From TrEMBL:
Domain Mannitol dehydrogenase C-terminal: 278-470
Keywords: NAD, Oxidoreductase
Gene Ontology biological-process annotations: D-galacturonate catabolic process; mannitol catabolic process
Upper lineage: Bacteria, Pseudomonadati, Bacteroidota, Flavobacteriia, Flavobacteriales
EC number: 1.1.1.58
Source organism per UniProt: Chryseobacterium aquaticum subsp. greenlandense
GO cellular component terms given for this protein: cytosol
Protein name: Altronate oxidoreductase
PANTHER family xref list: ALTRONATE OXIDOREDUCTASE-RELATED, MANNITOL-1-PHOSPHATE 5-DEHYDROGENASE
């Protein structure tokens, strides 16, 4: 029997024809936003009848919203992963987006959004480079390529249309992965207002009647499953060219301003969405445990012949090494609630074991030294300060990093992907044949670490021993000998 031709996903087919009031303008409708914020808003609509409609704005001139429009702005989200040891595999048709607009070719419709009576929120994910000032955007007249310039125009049009009404300000909730993302965006918007000679009353309105919420976002959203599309399509009764795959885990930490939960009740759905006065502890937790876990396992895992995060964590030796490092060396240095840290770390291990996501170690090796400096080294130094001794696992990880930058291991070339000056410096260091000299030169290189690590008592001796063991044994034996040496 021939395969039945499926109908393209649409609102009549999906029985979602109710028009929702436009409460949100979203800059960027890429994979992350569709698997993260759009999912959250859709859940608010379906579970507590919040009735929040989204307008999706094309982020770049070369993007395409045509496929979204062809599907009535509907798409399927598959959430797949492990939660407390159990495999989660779910799918949802997301219907919160009401329309998509290309602000470059359809500028007047973009400007008209400022007049939407119910509009209250701006979400964005334009990548970390999106929140930047472009001095070439010298005119208020658009269309503008720069994202903050577009937000400035949207706010000014709204300010003019509603005569500066105090209750018509917006809540800006950016999801770009930079620190103080909302405050950085606000300052650039004000810079444009000054560049364009907009009235002082507008700048005052921005400060007094708009809220800028810094955020921390965390969810892996690989996007369209191009390598396995057929198996996903087989699960659907319709054609969907915009389907998205994400992991199950979701963390959305938002800095409080103006009683946010009263305006958008995140606290009424069962997701890890935290509205807090200070997001820094959560940022620290993510950087040191999740990102730090990736980074501290990287060199030992690659030198052990592993290729993916899951393969590494599932391996008896590497899994034990990482667990001991996180729970016994990293967590105690953070000064945060012990139970919350333990629960977060266990979630991280579930994410590392996700069978649906293939996370290659080589991709983590990009700018490895700077990542180690930010994500792992502070834990090592704080551990020494608190305990008066070296953390065995973090020290072995550091030694493995130094060995990694020799460039090859056995007959295998290693995936060095760092600044040329760093790779060249390590190449120079490894012209020395004595491990003690290699350790001394690598640890004292302040351009790597912003400090001279030979000043840390016992570190040079420990790294020297680890380097010797790594070159003369398999990694598990090298580690065990190193542990015995430091006991």
């Amino acid at each position: 029997m021939e395969n039945q031709i499926k109908q393209k996903l649409n609102r009549e087919l999906n029985n979602t024809q109710e028009k929702l009031p436009i409460k949100i303008v979203q800059f960027g409708g890429g994979n992350f936003m569709r698997g993260f914020t759009d999912y959250v808003i859709d859940k608010l609509n379906k579970e507590i009848n919040w009735k929040g409609g989204i307008v999706n704005l094309q982020a770049t001139p070369n993007g395409s919203i045509q496929k979204m429009e062809e599907q009535d702005n509907l798409y399927t989200l598959f959430t797949r992963g492990i939660k407390k040891g159990e495999i989660i595999d779910e799918k949802h048709v997301i219907s919160a987006i009401q329309k998509s607009i290309n602000p470059y070719s359809d500028y007047q419709n973009f400007l008209a959004l400022a007049k939407e009576e119910d509009l209250e929120f701006v979400f964005s994910n334009t990548t970390e480079t999106g929140i930047a000032f472009d001095e070439t955007e010298t005119s208020y007249e658009g269309p503008h390529k720069n994202f903050p310039a577009k937000v400035a125009v949207l706010l000014y049009e709204r300010f003019k249309y509603f005569n500066g009404a105090a209750d018509k300000g917006l809540r800006i909730i950016p999801c770009e992965l930079i620190e103080d993302n909302a405050f950085v965006l606000r300052d650039i918007i004000i810079k444009y207002a000054q560049l364009w000679n907009l009235e002082d009353a507008f700048v005052e309105w921005i400060h007094q009647n708009n809220y800028f919420h810094n955020t921390l976002v965390d969810r892996i959203v690989p996007g369209y499953p191009k390598d396995d599309a057929e198996s996903y399509e087989d699960q659907l009764d319709f054609e969907d060219q915009m389907m998205v795959v994400s992991e199950t885990f979701l963390l959305f930490v938002i800095q409080e301003a103006g009683n946010l939960n009263e305006r958008i009740p995140f606290n009424k759905i069962n997701e890890q969405i935290l509205v807090v006065d200070d997001i820094q502890p959560y940022r620290l937790r993510k950087v040191r445990i999740l990102n730090g876990g990736h980074t501290l396992m990287l060199a030992p895992a690659i030198l052990s012949g592993k290729e993916t995060v899951k393969e590494s964590v599932d391996n008896q030796f590497m899994g034990m090494f990482l667990k001991d490092a996180i729970f016994n060396e990293v967590n105690p240095t953070l000064g945060l609630n012990e139970t919350e840290l333990k629960e977060f770390a266990e979630e991280v291990f579930d994410r590392f074991r996700n069978p649906f996501i293939k996370h290659h170690l080589a991709s983590i090796a990009l700018y490895f030294v700077s990542k180690f400096k930010v994500r792992v080294l502070p834990s090592l130094l704080t551990y020494v300060e608190n305990n008066g001794k070296l953390p065995v696992n973090l020290t072995f990880s550091l030694a493995s990093l130094i060995r990694f930058y020799q460039g090859s291991f056995g007959e295998k070339a290693l995936p060095l992907n760092d600044e040329e000056v760093i790779v060249a410096k390590f190449k120079e260091i490894w012209t020395n044949e004595e491990y003690e000299k290699v350790a001394e030169l690598a640890l004292s290189e302040t351009s790597f670490w912003d400090t001279d690590l030979t000043q840390v008592e016992g570190l040079k001796t420990a790294v020297t021993k680890a380097l010797y063991e790594i070159d003369h044994n398999d990694m598990e034996t090298a580690y065990n000998n190193f542990v015995e040496f430091n006991s």
